[in-house]
Design goal:
This protein has a two-stranded antiparallel sheet. It contains 14 helices and two strands. With 358 residues, the chain is mainly α. The model is unreliable at 1-21, 233-239 and 344-358 (pLDDT under 50). It has helices spanning 4-19, 26-61, 70-98, 111-123, 125-142, 147-150, 153-171, 174-177, 194-229, 231-234, 240-272, 281-299, 305-312, 314-355; strands at residues 178-181, 184-187. Helix 5 (125-142) runs antiparallel to helix 7, helix 5 packs across helix 11 (240-272) and helix 11 (240-272) packs antiparallel against helix 12 (281-299). It has a single domain (28-314), classed as Up-down Bundle (Rhopdopsin 7-helix transmembrane proteins). Helix content is 78%, strand content 2%.
Protein backbone atom coordinates (compact mmCIF):
# COMPACT_ATOMS: atom_id res chain seq x y z
CA UNK A 1 0.00 0.00 0.00
CA UNK A 2 1.52 3.39 -0.96
CA UNK A 3 2.49 5.80 1.76
CA UNK A 4 -0.02 8.59 1.15
CA UNK A 5 1.17 10.71 4.06
CA UNK A 6 4.74 10.94 2.76
CA UNK A 7 3.58 11.72 -0.80
CA UNK A 8 1.30 14.50 0.43
CA UNK A 9 4.16 15.89 2.50
CA UNK A 10 6.38 15.93 -0.58
CA UNK A 11 3.70 17.78 -2.53
CA UNK A 12 3.36 20.36 0.24
CA UNK A 13 7.15 20.77 0.41
CA UNK A 14 7.43 21.37 -3.36
CA UNK A 15 4.54 23.82 -3.23
CA UNK A 16 6.13 25.75 -0.39
CA UNK A 17 9.46 25.86 -2.25
CA UNK A 18 7.76 27.25 -5.33
CA UNK A 19 5.97 29.86 -3.25
CA UNK A 20 9.21 31.01 -1.62
CA UNK A 21 11.27 31.23 -4.81
CA UNK A 22 12.61 34.78 -5.25
CA UNK A 23 10.68 36.72 -7.84
CA UNK A 24 12.49 39.28 -10.01
CA UNK A 25 10.63 42.55 -10.18
CA UNK A 26 10.16 44.51 -13.37
CA UNK A 27 12.66 47.13 -12.17
CA UNK A 28 15.30 44.47 -11.57
CA UNK A 29 14.69 42.91 -14.99
CA UNK A 30 15.06 46.35 -16.57
CA UNK A 31 18.31 46.83 -14.66
CA UNK A 32 19.64 43.52 -16.01
CA UNK A 33 18.66 44.54 -19.53
CA UNK A 34 20.39 47.92 -19.16
CA UNK A 35 23.54 46.25 -17.82
CA UNK A 36 23.72 43.95 -20.84
CA UNK A 37 22.98 46.80 -23.26
CA UNK A 38 25.39 49.34 -21.78
CA UNK A 39 28.22 47.08 -20.62
CA UNK A 40 28.33 44.62 -23.53
CA UNK A 41 27.03 46.30 -26.70
CA UNK A 42 27.57 50.05 -26.20
CA UNK A 43 31.34 50.20 -25.42
CA UNK A 44 32.58 48.86 -28.80
CA UNK A 45 30.28 51.32 -30.60
CA UNK A 46 31.65 54.22 -28.55
CA UNK A 47 35.24 53.06 -29.09
CA UNK A 48 34.82 52.84 -32.88
CA UNK A 49 33.03 56.20 -33.13
CA UNK A 50 35.49 57.85 -30.78
CA UNK A 51 38.53 56.44 -32.57
CA UNK A 52 37.42 57.60 -36.02
CA UNK A 53 36.10 60.97 -34.87
CA UNK A 54 38.94 61.91 -32.53
CA UNK A 55 41.64 60.82 -35.00
CA UNK A 56 40.08 62.87 -37.79
CA UNK A 57 39.80 65.83 -35.42
CA UNK A 58 43.47 65.58 -34.46
CA UNK A 59 44.58 65.31 -38.08
CA UNK A 60 42.53 68.33 -39.12
CA UNK A 61 43.64 70.46 -36.17
CA UNK A 62 47.30 69.72 -36.91
CA UNK A 63 47.06 71.05 -40.45
CA UNK A 64 49.08 74.11 -41.39
CA UNK A 65 46.15 76.53 -41.38
CA UNK A 66 45.00 75.60 -37.86
CA UNK A 67 47.95 74.24 -35.88
CA UNK A 68 49.06 77.69 -34.65
CA UNK A 69 45.70 78.54 -33.04
CA UNK A 70 45.32 78.15 -29.30
CA UNK A 71 41.79 76.80 -29.63
CA UNK A 72 43.07 74.12 -32.03
CA UNK A 73 45.57 73.01 -29.39
CA UNK A 74 42.83 72.71 -26.74
CA UNK A 75 40.59 70.72 -29.10
CA UNK A 76 43.50 68.45 -29.99
CA UNK A 77 44.33 67.91 -26.32
CA UNK A 78 40.69 67.08 -25.56
CA UNK A 79 40.58 64.60 -28.47
CA UNK A 80 43.81 62.94 -27.28
CA UNK A 81 42.47 62.57 -23.73
CA UNK A 82 39.25 61.11 -25.14
CA UNK A 83 41.20 58.50 -27.11
CA UNK A 84 43.25 57.49 -24.08
CA UNK A 85 40.15 57.18 -21.94
CA UNK A 86 38.26 55.13 -24.52
CA UNK A 87 41.04 52.57 -24.87
CA UNK A 88 42.69 52.60 -21.46
CA UNK A 89 39.54 52.67 -19.30
CA UNK A 90 36.39 51.89 -21.27
CA UNK A 91 38.17 49.28 -23.39
CA UNK A 92 39.67 47.45 -20.42
CA UNK A 93 36.36 47.66 -18.58
CA UNK A 94 34.58 46.11 -21.57
CA UNK A 95 37.17 43.32 -21.97
CA UNK A 96 36.89 42.47 -18.28
CA UNK A 97 33.11 42.24 -18.62
CA UNK A 98 33.17 40.14 -21.79
CA UNK A 99 35.74 37.61 -20.55
CA UNK A 100 34.46 37.67 -16.96
CA UNK A 101 37.83 38.79 -15.63
CA UNK A 102 38.85 41.11 -12.83
CA UNK A 103 39.27 44.76 -13.70
CA UNK A 104 42.78 46.20 -13.91
CA UNK A 105 42.64 47.81 -10.45
CA UNK A 106 41.69 44.43 -8.94
CA UNK A 107 44.64 42.50 -10.36
CA UNK A 108 47.07 43.37 -7.58
CA UNK A 109 47.27 45.40 -4.39
CA UNK A 110 49.70 47.96 -5.85
CA UNK A 111 47.64 48.37 -9.03
CA UNK A 112 44.57 49.55 -7.11
CA UNK A 113 45.91 52.96 -5.96
CA UNK A 114 48.14 53.47 -9.01
CA UNK A 115 45.31 52.82 -11.47
CA UNK A 116 42.94 55.09 -9.56
CA UNK A 117 45.54 57.86 -9.56
CA UNK A 118 46.20 57.56 -13.32
CA UNK A 119 42.50 57.36 -14.16
CA UNK A 120 41.71 60.52 -12.22
CA UNK A 121 44.50 62.56 -13.78
CA UNK A 122 43.59 61.58 -17.34
CA UNK A 123 39.79 61.47 -17.09
CA UNK A 124 39.31 64.80 -15.32
CA UNK A 125 41.76 66.61 -17.57
CA UNK A 126 39.09 66.52 -20.29
CA UNK A 127 36.64 68.74 -18.44
CA UNK A 128 39.40 71.23 -17.62
CA UNK A 129 40.37 71.42 -21.29
CA UNK A 130 36.75 72.32 -22.00
CA UNK A 131 37.04 75.07 -19.39
CA UNK A 132 40.24 76.28 -21.05
CA UNK A 133 38.46 76.38 -24.41
CA UNK A 134 35.68 78.45 -22.85
CA UNK A 135 38.11 80.94 -21.29
CA UNK A 136 39.94 81.23 -24.61
CA UNK A 137 36.70 82.08 -26.44
CA UNK A 138 35.67 84.46 -23.64
CA UNK A 139 38.86 86.46 -24.20
CA UNK A 140 38.26 86.51 -27.95
CA UNK A 141 34.76 87.96 -27.54
CA UNK A 142 34.98 90.19 -24.48
CA UNK A 143 38.66 91.23 -24.52
CA UNK A 144 39.70 91.27 -28.18
CA UNK A 145 42.64 93.59 -27.52
CA UNK A 146 44.21 90.96 -25.25
CA UNK A 147 43.65 88.19 -27.78
CA UNK A 148 47.07 88.36 -29.43
CA UNK A 149 48.85 88.21 -26.04
CA UNK A 150 46.77 85.63 -24.15
CA UNK A 151 45.38 83.33 -26.83
CA UNK A 152 48.68 82.03 -28.19
CA UNK A 153 50.03 78.53 -28.70
CA UNK A 154 52.62 79.08 -25.97
CA UNK A 155 49.94 80.07 -23.45
CA UNK A 156 47.81 77.08 -24.45
CA UNK A 157 50.72 74.71 -23.76
CA UNK A 158 51.40 76.46 -20.46
CA UNK A 159 47.74 76.06 -19.45
CA UNK A 160 47.88 72.35 -20.34
CA UNK A 161 50.90 71.90 -18.05
CA UNK A 162 49.08 73.74 -15.24
CA UNK A 163 46.03 71.48 -15.69
CA UNK A 164 48.04 68.26 -15.44
CA UNK A 165 50.17 69.47 -12.53
CA UNK A 166 47.06 70.57 -10.63
CA UNK A 167 45.31 67.24 -11.22
CA UNK A 168 48.40 65.36 -10.07
CA UNK A 169 48.41 67.35 -6.82
CA UNK A 170 44.68 66.80 -6.26
CA UNK A 171 44.75 63.10 -7.22
CA UNK A 172 47.90 62.04 -5.38
CA UNK A 173 45.82 61.21 -2.31
CA UNK A 174 44.49 58.18 -4.21
CA UNK A 175 47.88 56.53 -3.70
CA UNK A 176 47.18 56.07 0.01
CA UNK A 177 43.38 56.23 0.30
CA UNK A 178 42.47 53.42 -2.13
CA UNK A 179 42.87 49.80 -1.08
CA UNK A 180 42.05 46.48 -2.69
CA UNK A 181 39.22 44.87 -0.75
CA UNK A 182 37.20 41.71 -1.19
CA UNK A 183 34.57 43.42 -3.35
CA UNK A 184 36.89 45.66 -5.37
CA UNK A 185 39.16 48.73 -5.24
CA UNK A 186 37.61 51.34 -2.94
CA UNK A 187 38.63 54.14 -0.62
CA UNK A 188 39.35 53.22 2.97
CA UNK A 189 37.63 55.56 5.43
CA UNK A 190 38.59 55.03 9.08
CA UNK A 191 35.93 55.94 11.60
CA UNK A 192 35.84 59.58 12.69
CA UNK A 193 38.52 60.50 10.15
CA UNK A 194 37.64 64.08 9.27
CA UNK A 195 40.58 64.38 6.88
CA UNK A 196 39.26 61.64 4.58
CA UNK A 197 35.79 63.17 4.47
CA UNK A 198 37.02 66.71 3.80
CA UNK A 199 39.54 65.64 1.18
CA UNK A 200 36.88 63.61 -0.66
CA UNK A 201 34.70 66.71 -1.09
CA UNK A 202 37.70 68.88 -1.99
CA UNK A 203 38.73 66.46 -4.72
CA UNK A 204 35.14 66.21 -6.00
CA UNK A 205 34.98 70.00 -6.16
CA UNK A 206 38.05 70.21 -8.39
CA UNK A 207 36.98 67.18 -10.44
CA UNK A 208 33.39 68.21 -11.16
CA UNK A 209 31.71 71.01 -9.22
CA UNK A 210 34.09 73.88 -9.94
CA UNK A 211 34.67 73.12 -13.66
CA UNK A 212 30.94 72.56 -14.24
CA UNK A 213 30.16 75.89 -12.58
CA UNK A 214 32.81 77.59 -14.73
CA UNK A 215 31.42 75.99 -17.89
CA UNK A 216 27.94 77.26 -17.05
CA UNK A 217 29.17 80.79 -16.27
CA UNK A 218 31.32 81.11 -19.39
CA UNK A 219 28.57 79.61 -21.52
CA UNK A 220 26.28 82.44 -20.44
CA UNK A 221 29.00 85.06 -21.01
CA UNK A 222 29.98 83.75 -24.45
CA UNK A 223 26.37 83.40 -25.57
CA UNK A 224 25.66 86.94 -24.37
CA UNK A 225 28.76 88.25 -26.12
CA UNK A 226 27.81 86.57 -29.40
CA UNK A 227 24.33 88.11 -29.24
CA UNK A 228 25.48 91.59 -28.24
CA UNK A 229 28.89 92.11 -29.80
CA UNK A 230 28.68 90.02 -32.96
CA UNK A 231 32.46 89.48 -33.02
CA UNK A 232 32.46 87.86 -36.45
CA UNK A 233 31.48 91.17 -38.03
CA UNK A 234 33.08 93.76 -35.78
CA UNK A 235 36.57 92.32 -35.29
CA UNK A 236 37.84 91.53 -38.75
CA UNK A 237 41.48 91.87 -37.73
CA UNK A 238 41.32 88.87 -35.40
CA UNK A 239 42.16 85.32 -36.32
CA UNK A 240 39.37 84.15 -38.62
CA UNK A 241 39.75 80.49 -37.72
CA UNK A 242 39.69 81.16 -33.98
CA UNK A 243 36.48 83.16 -34.26
CA UNK A 244 34.73 80.43 -36.20
CA UNK A 245 35.59 77.82 -33.55
CA UNK A 246 33.64 79.87 -31.00
CA UNK A 247 30.40 78.19 -32.01
CA UNK A 248 32.10 74.79 -31.80
CA UNK A 249 33.36 75.54 -28.30
CA UNK A 250 29.95 76.75 -27.18
CA UNK A 251 28.19 73.65 -28.52
CA UNK A 252 30.81 71.29 -27.09
CA UNK A 253 30.60 72.81 -23.63
CA UNK A 254 26.79 72.70 -23.65
CA UNK A 255 26.68 69.04 -24.61
CA UNK A 256 29.43 68.23 -22.13
CA UNK A 257 27.54 69.98 -19.35
CA UNK A 258 24.27 68.20 -20.15
CA UNK A 259 25.87 64.76 -20.39
CA UNK A 260 27.95 65.06 -17.21
CA UNK A 261 25.40 66.73 -14.96
CA UNK A 262 23.23 63.59 -14.34
CA UNK A 263 26.24 61.57 -13.16
CA UNK A 264 27.29 64.43 -10.88
CA UNK A 265 23.83 64.71 -9.31
CA UNK A 266 23.57 60.95 -8.75
CA UNK A 267 27.04 60.94 -7.19
CA UNK A 268 25.92 63.60 -4.70
CA UNK A 269 22.74 61.64 -3.93
CA UNK A 270 24.66 58.41 -3.32
CA UNK A 271 26.99 60.15 -0.86
CA UNK A 272 24.27 61.99 1.05
CA UNK A 273 21.10 59.88 1.07
CA UNK A 274 19.96 58.59 4.49
CA UNK A 275 20.61 54.94 5.46
CA UNK A 276 16.86 54.30 5.61
CA UNK A 277 16.75 54.40 1.80
CA UNK A 278 18.74 51.17 1.67
CA UNK A 279 15.74 49.34 3.12
CA UNK A 280 13.67 50.25 0.07
CA UNK A 281 14.68 47.66 -2.51
CA UNK A 282 12.74 49.33 -5.32
CA UNK A 283 14.42 52.68 -4.68
CA UNK A 284 17.88 51.11 -4.61
CA UNK A 285 17.17 49.43 -7.95
CA UNK A 286 16.00 52.70 -9.48
CA UNK A 287 19.16 54.45 -8.24
CA UNK A 288 21.27 51.68 -9.77
CA UNK A 289 19.50 52.13 -13.13
CA UNK A 290 19.99 55.90 -13.00
CA UNK A 291 23.65 55.50 -12.03
CA UNK A 292 24.32 53.08 -14.89
CA UNK A 293 22.58 55.29 -17.44
CA UNK A 294 24.33 58.46 -16.25
CA UNK A 295 27.70 56.68 -16.27
CA UNK A 296 27.46 55.85 -19.97
CA UNK A 297 25.93 59.22 -20.80
CA UNK A 298 29.17 60.74 -19.55
CA UNK A 299 31.12 58.40 -21.83
CA UNK A 300 29.37 59.98 -24.82
CA UNK A 301 31.48 63.08 -24.22
CA UNK A 302 34.51 61.13 -25.46
CA UNK A 303 32.95 60.92 -28.95
CA UNK A 304 31.31 64.32 -29.50
CA UNK A 305 34.18 66.63 -30.41
CA UNK A 306 34.31 65.56 -34.07
CA UNK A 307 30.57 66.03 -34.55
CA UNK A 308 30.66 69.43 -32.83
CA UNK A 309 33.48 70.60 -35.09
CA UNK A 310 31.84 69.16 -38.19
CA UNK A 311 28.39 70.66 -37.63
CA UNK A 312 29.36 74.01 -36.11
CA UNK A 313 32.54 75.01 -37.97
CA UNK A 314 32.69 75.64 -41.69
CA UNK A 315 36.46 75.98 -41.43
CA UNK A 316 36.71 72.46 -40.04
CA UNK A 317 34.57 71.07 -42.85
CA UNK A 318 36.69 72.81 -45.49
CA UNK A 319 39.94 71.59 -43.94
CA UNK A 320 38.55 68.07 -43.57
CA UNK A 321 37.47 68.02 -47.23
CA UNK A 322 40.84 69.34 -48.38
CA UNK A 323 42.63 66.69 -46.31
CA UNK A 324 40.51 63.87 -47.70
CA UNK A 325 40.87 65.17 -51.25
CA UNK A 326 44.64 65.46 -50.88
CA UNK A 327 44.81 61.88 -49.59
CA UNK A 328 42.68 60.63 -52.49
CA UNK A 329 44.70 62.61 -55.04
CA UNK A 330 47.94 61.35 -53.54
CA UNK A 331 46.67 57.78 -53.71
CA UNK A 332 45.54 58.21 -57.32
CA UNK A 333 48.84 59.86 -58.24
CA UNK A 334 50.70 56.95 -56.70
CA UNK A 335 48.60 54.47 -58.67
CA UNK A 336 49.14 56.49 -61.86
CA UNK A 337 52.89 56.57 -61.29
CA UNK A 338 52.96 52.84 -60.73
CA UNK A 339 50.91 52.23 -63.87
CA UNK A 340 52.94 54.58 -66.06
CA UNK A 341 56.14 53.16 -64.61
CA UNK A 342 55.12 49.60 -65.40
CA UNK A 343 54.02 50.59 -68.91
CA UNK A 344 57.29 52.39 -69.66
CA UNK A 345 59.24 49.43 -68.33
CA UNK A 346 57.19 47.12 -70.54
CA UNK A 347 57.85 49.30 -73.60
CA UNK A 348 61.57 49.40 -72.85
CA UNK A 349 61.61 45.61 -72.53
CA UNK A 350 59.83 45.23 -75.87
CA UNK A 351 62.25 47.57 -77.60
CA UNK A 352 65.18 45.63 -76.15
CA UNK A 353 63.73 42.40 -77.38
CA UNK A 354 63.35 43.87 -80.88
CA UNK A 355 66.87 45.29 -81.15
CA UNK A 356 68.87 42.70 -79.29
CA UNK A 357 70.04 39.87 -81.61
CA UNK A 358 69.39 36.32 -80.54
Amino acid sequence: MPNTSSSSADVQLKTSQQNYEPQISSAESELIFLEILFQVYLPPVLIVLGTVGNCLTIFVMRRKNLCQCSISFYITAFACCSLVMLYLFLGTEWISKIFNQKSVDEKADWLCPVWQFISRVISYSGIWFVVAMMIDRYIVIWHPKQFSNLCTLFMAKFVAIIIFVGLVVISIHAMWTFELMDNGCYTYHPENDVHSVIWTWVAASFYSYIPLALIFIFNVLIFTGICLKRPFKSHQTQDHHSLLFTYTTLATSMFYFLLVMPATIINIVEHTYPPSWQQDKELVTQLAKANLTAHYMAWLNMTIIFFMCFFFSRTFRVELWDMLCSLCCRHRRRIYELQTGSQSTHLETDSCNETTPL
